[in-house]
## 1
Amino acid sequence: MYSKPADSVADLPLAGEARELLRSCVHCGFCLPACPTYRITGSELDSPRGRIYLIKEMLEHGRATATARTHLDRCLTCRACETACPSGVQYGRLADLGRELIEHEPPSSRDPATRFVRFALAKVATRRELFTPLVRIGQALRPALPGALKVLLPARAEGRSTTRDMLAWPTARHARRMTVLEGCVQPGLAPQINAAAARVLDQLGISLVAARDVGCCGAMAHHLGRTDAALDQVRRNVEASERLLDGGCEAIVSTASGCGTFAKDYGHVLRHADASISAAGARVSAATRDLCEVVDPVALERAVTAVRKQREPVRIAWQAPCSLQHGQRSSTTGKVEALLRAAGCELVATRNPTLCCGSAGTYSILQPELARELRTRKLDSLRGDEPTAIATANIGCLEHLRQASPVPVRHWIEIVDSILFA
Ligand code: SF4
Ligand code: SF4
């Protein structure tokens, strides 16, 4: 697809990049059936091809229209279209550039309520030192909250009826060490996930070290089009992660696949930065692993066999987050399923495994109707074979599905942890 950027944007680096990315689209439409929003609305403008045309128009006219903004805002950035595209169009990168173009518009181009919500998400949800205390206050007031607010808050891990401390973190004792991304919302909503990862890896001979200086990965600000804020977060994380790698950590582990996907792209995100930070970004990207890439299924099966008592296998429906199946694709495909089987779980059949659940970072807050419709469809497809629990690998999907699921929704490492240590 050929395009000529308008003079007003031609000097922006993003114009040249968008023009190159647009070239590979041949308008064939093979991506349309894979697109969750197109499947719901049936509108070409809510399809990848339609959005690509809208980005092309923005580039050529040098300004965003309300139509382009509406339909790009409705995109989940799930990247199912990339997996379906035979021409290798990098839609996710193109959509990011389109959003950056939109954010060049004056602030008044969005209504005040939407601007406030986007601002609050970028300022509060990305800072765990603010977000975690707010969640704790909400949890303390939970009994008095109205039902609609109550469902948004998970119960506190410490408060659950349990025979063990779900937040217990083993002392580092192994020569093999890895660090784990703390992130922004996960420590507040589900601190037990990283603790479970630390216990399982400890059992397999790897000490997991919490990276306290590493904050929000930057994906939220990036996808909200707040490029400068995202770059600040990425730079800070890259510098902190480099110190950990220099100190002997062999990998940076992510237990939230959305964050891991973005961290694996730090080298690209910092491509216009000065040479030293850009090289450091590439080094951190290369050292980043999703948790499923560092747990060895053979060692896990051996560990489970050593402790297993006689019991029925747990029936699990696996929900592959889009960030794993489309974002990280070849490096993670089939890995969590293999690990759950190695732990003795029975995986039930699910329909539409590529369908997005509607969480998509801040999407479920900014586009609640589409997000709810996608969640209903996803839960129907996951529950068809009557699982006892749903497993996922991303905090956003977990929280979004949990709020409407009649069966527990858990990170897969929590399930493995409960089998090993219950
Ligand atoms: S993005 Fe790919 S699949 Fe979709 S219209 Fe363009 S070339 Fe075809
Ligand atoms: S990223 Fe997802 S929602 Fe957006 S155009 Fe592609 S398939 Fe559709």
Note: The CA atoms of residues 180 and 253 lie 5 Å apart.
## 2
Amino acid sequence: MSHAIIELRDVTYAFPDRDATLNGLTFHLHHGEKLGLFGPNGAGKSTMLHILMGLLTPDQGEVELFGVPMSDDKAFEAARLRIGFLFQHSDDQLFCPTVLDDVAFGPLNQGLTRDQAAERAREALETVGLAGFEERIPHRLSGGEKKLVALATVLAMKPEVLVLDEPTTGLSPEAKERLVEILKGLDLARLVVSHDPEFLAATTDRLIAMRDGRIRPGELKPHTHIHVHEEGDVPHQH
Ligand SMILES: Nc1ncnc2c1ncn2[C@@H]1O[C@H](COP(=O)(O)OP(=O)(O)OP(=O)(O)O)[C@@H](O)[C@H]1O
Ligand SMILES: [Mg+2]
């Protein structure tokens, strides 16, 4: 229990010919923690997630996952099988000829048989409300449908921790509500990146912010307001 599930220490990263996007960033996610991460467009949130998944290599600093230093690709490959990572852009997540193949891909990599993986995939598709989409072609789906398939790929892995980059982009209110219920029903540590404060309030316990290439611990605690007024059942904004 003493180890963090995810630990980044003093990570610096610059894209070629650019100033540093991450600049001495330190971050921990411990067992049972549910963290929401927000910050302006271009702050480096997705870059940080790509580094922690081993998709980008930091210029300086260290990544440790499940208490193991990520010293090479093999270490990352093993750790990735235990992390449910949702890309911000679903096209980065989906690359198979059918939806079923995409959702079964993770479980197959984890060592399940074809039948077991297909069963897991069907269950996950049903959970996100896409039963019947098994033979559809991922790149021809709508943006919201792609996001839901990508979420199914994450759930099908039965991961030990969730790392979700903008999980609600493109989702209708109904699909978003379904996702909130799914996440509330999962007792899993998580890091959720989102620009949607209500979603973060519903699915995480504590907020942190990214600024100047670092994590600024938020004093903010996400919370929702309940309010009552005339015509409150008509969709509206405050
Ligand atoms: N492959 C790349 N090459 C050069 N610059 C990049 C590349 N990818 C991202 N960037 C830049 O790095 C910075 C951080 O991008 P990143 O995607 O991490 O931001 P973000 O915090 O996730 O933003 P958003 O809230 O819009 O998703 C941005 O200025 C972006 O333009
Ligand atoms: Mg991003």
Note: The helical segments are 45-52, 73-80, 99-109, 114-127, 143-156, 173-184, 197-203.
